[in-house]
Amino acid sequence: MNSGRFPYSKWVGTFLLLLVTCSASAEKVKVLNLENSLQIAKENNLTIQSAEQNLKSAEAQIRTARAAMLPRLAANGNYTYFKDVQKSVIYAQGGFGFPIPGEDTNGMSTPNVDNEADLIELEFGAHHNVQGNVNLTQPVFAWGRYYYGYQAAKLRYEAEEKELAAAYEKLRLDVHEAFYRVLIAQEFVKVAEQSVALVQKQLGIAQTSFDAGATTNFDVLRAKVQLANSESQLIRAKNGVKTAQNAYKTLLNLSLSEQISVEGSFEIPEIQIQLDELIKLAFETRPEISQSQLNEQAGQKQLSVAKTRNLPDLAFFSNYQISHNERLTQMNRIWSLGLQINIPIFDGFASRAGVQQSESVLKQLQLGTKQIRSAIEFEVRNAYLALLEAKTLINVQRETVAQAQESVRIATLQFENGMITSVGLTDTQLALMQAKVNRLQALHDYVVGLAKLEKAIGQRIQ
Known about the structure:
The chain is an alpha+beta fold. The chain has a domain at 28-70 and 142-310 and 350-457: Outer membrane efflux proteins (OEP). Helix content is 65%, strand content 14%. It has helices at residues 2-25, 34-44, 46-67, 93-97, 145-211, 217-251, 275-285, 287-307, 350-416, 422-457, and strands at 30-32, 72-81, 86-91, 119-124, 128-141, 260-262, 313-325, 332-342. Helix 5 (145-211) packs antiparallel against helix 8, helix 7 (275-285) crosses helix 9 and helix 8 runs antiparallel to helix 9.
């Protein structure tokens, strides 16, 4: 019986293992290139989403500022129940205590408080009271205070639009850097694999020579050590791909457990624009400069608002009121309208302090604009010089890789014929790997440098 159960459990376990393996292999790998990565980043990036919310908040501030110039209409109502109402006692003779016309007031008799027939008890008010009120207020003249506030809100909204545009440019650069970081990590894996293959070939040649008695065990041992080192570099390169992919997925706001693959190439477009022209383009197109200028204009409007707060303002008002209780035969209706002037006399110097604060804010914004222009010029110059450096290195490394490949080919033939030791062959192999790495790094620096230059001037370079 036991011998029959064991194969059954073994088959069940094998089936479950195959099922899990098929599920893992069936997991779809998302292939990303630079174009769709940029689109995913725009849709998912948290920094962009935050900037978009700031833009919506600025749009709401425009509506709030516009509302200050429009009429304000308010209505309220209330119902009040009095269990007990106020009562009063009035002397009835002579028209409830008043002299009868034509009668000598000196001859009026004094009320007799002991005689209840001379007194009347009256109730003032009612138990059930209903009241409603509608009030309309419209600012008429306030020295442009509300209009300046509206203009300042519109300028701040335009500044938020520029900030969103700057966030898009920054995100584009971040995507380029992360994308090419993954791409170069993948290329480093290929270089490391080529290095392992070369060393394995060297080990095979050394082992064959040793077996034939043509060489000592030194070449075999050295090749084995070199192979272990190359395999270690391959492991690090593969781990570098995973690290770069995780950083890339974080930037795109993708799940870290999602499998991705990056496809692309290091294209080297030529640019013919001079540095002075690039700086001029940056001053004209960078959204940060436009944003700073718009904030400066908004600060000027806010200063104008602050200067009007200690000046009189005029408003129109209208009021319609209704009231009713059980003692009235008809509902009371009262309608009124008029003009209201508000004249500030003393506010504890709050208006003066507000003006000084607005002037200080405006000065800071003006200084900020100058700092931004200086920082942008510095950024353009650095990006331009870095791009030229990368381009020069690419041209140099192109010849270096070709020469190193030829050196490895010759050294391999010499090693096979016993003309050189493994030390000489290893040196040429290391030189080739280093040349390939340097060329890849130069290509990476160029494409990323071009993206930095485009971000620095605020537009694409054709």
